[in-house]
Automatic annotation (TrEMBL):
Transmembrane feature ranges: none
Species of origin: Cohaesibacter celericrescens
NCBIfam families: PRK08139.1
A GO BP entry: fatty acid metabolic process
Keywords associated with the record: Fatty acid metabolism, Lipid metabolism, Transit peptide
Role of this protein: May play a role in fatty acid biosynthesis and insulin sensitivity.
The protein, known as: Enoyl-CoA hydratase domain-containing protein 3, mitochondrial
Origin organism lineage: Bacteria, Pseudomonadati, Pseudomonadota, Alphaproteobacteria, Hyphomicrobiales
Length: 271
């Protein structure tokens, strides 16, 4: 993405191509920081995408050289002059961000981060929260809050659910940047590609996913996140129940019939 859009335009631009809806963060001058405006715009557009039956996959992208620089520190610092020294506003911003991240996890549609540049602090949190993430060779990632006396506690939630604990702790306590290939090795991103192929690769993933059973994806995504923090026995109890319900669904009946008949499935959930 290029920074060709005016700052007077929406904080998030929406582009629909078939079943793929791309939400493009559009505040390159402020490094697409998760300001109050940006988070409200993202939350609104995610909700719109979730309620649109024609949309099957959501991509979160950005204009400019930076994907997302985390919270807007100037916006936060300006509220230190409030009577409560900013406590209420700080709490509001952190709750808003936490709600946004949970909305991504809880929506039944797959969300892909298309990372064309650097992602730091809550920006890295956004990448780690998305179901899939594809970045370019030039991307860097870090949780630098510790360098300014502000431990990245909310980004830690997504980070520790995406990477091994030792690697997560190293990033959190050093604040050092890692490059794209280290981020892939850690599990923050799925693929690292040249910049000129970023959209092509993201669209390939999105198009392939959009052709799957919407019903199966809904079952699968919800269960994936629910079982991840369960003990082994509880996880198997949950997934056995979900598999049973999934088997009874019309998409499963059609999909299995199509497989046995060696034909393409005609998913009822996509009609």
């Amino acid at each position: 993405m290029t920074a060709t859009n005016s700052e007077q335009e929406s904080a998030v631009l929406v582009e629909q191509v078939g079943p793929i809806r791309r939400l493009i963060m559009n505040r390159p001058k402020s490094r697409n920081a998760l300001s109050e405006e940006m988070m409200e715009a993202l939350a609104k557009e995610l909700d719109n995408a979730n309620n649109d039956d024609a949309t099957r996959v959501v991509v979160i992208a950005a204009n400019g050289p930076v994907f997302c620089a985390g919270h807007n520190l100037k916006e936060l610092t300006a509220r230190r002059s409030d009577p409560d020294h900013g406590r209420h506003y700080f709490a509001l911003i952190m709750r808003t961000c936490s709600t946004l991240m949970q909305a991504i996890v809880n929506m039944p549609k797959i969300v892909i981060a298309e990372v064309q540049g650097t992602a730091t602090a809550a920006g890295l949190q956004l990448v780690a929260t998305c179901d899939l993430a594809i970045c370019v060779n030039e991307s860097n990632f870090c949780t630098p809050g510790v360098n300014i006396g502000l431990f990245c506690s909310t980004p830690m939630v997504a980070l520790t659910r995406a990477v091994p604990r030792k690697q997560a702790m190293e990033m959190l306590v050093t604040g050092e940047e890692i490059d794209a290939h280290t981020a892939k090795a850690y599990g923050i991103v799925n693929r690292v590609v040249p910049l000129e192929y970023l959209r092509l690769v993201v669209d390939k993933y999105a198009t392939e996913i959009a052709q799957k059973s919407a019903h199966a994806l809904k079952f699968g995504k919800e269960t994936f996140y629910r079982q991840a923090d369960m003990n082994l026995a509880d996880a198997y109890d949950l997934t056995s129940l979900v598999m049973t319900e999934n088997m009874l669904a019309a998409d499963s009946e059609e999909g299995i019939s199509a497989f046995l008949a060696k034909r393409s499935a005609d998913w009822p959930s996509l009609k």
